[in-house]
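Reopening: (2Fe-2S)-binding protein still failing for me.
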Amino acid sequence: MFRRTEPTDCTIEWEGRALPARAGESLAVALLAAGITSFRETPVTGTARGPLCLMGACFDCLVEVEGAQNIQACLTQVTPGMRAGIQHGARGFVDDAA
Ligand code: FES
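Support: Ran it again with your exact input. Result attached.
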């Protein structure tokens, strides 16, 4: 679907798999360039979703990064060794008052 025009300089981990990336590019771009198009699953039907707008408006690119949920991949810069994965369903509940 997409082809890189510049060489990669690091790797990231997606669902436990090492993927080539460029430090500073968006996580969404790194995943798309690696052929990954399913970033999350919807809470109701589990339908796979992937980035649409690539500018922070649609929220279809939500992923988990370093254990944090609801991270917009299109607005997140790649750092070497970054660990990310599919967000399954709705974000988990965190009780900050406890
Ligand atoms: S692709 Fe639309 S918010 Fe990230």
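The chain has a mean pLDDT of 94. If you still see a failure, please send the error message rather than a screenshot.
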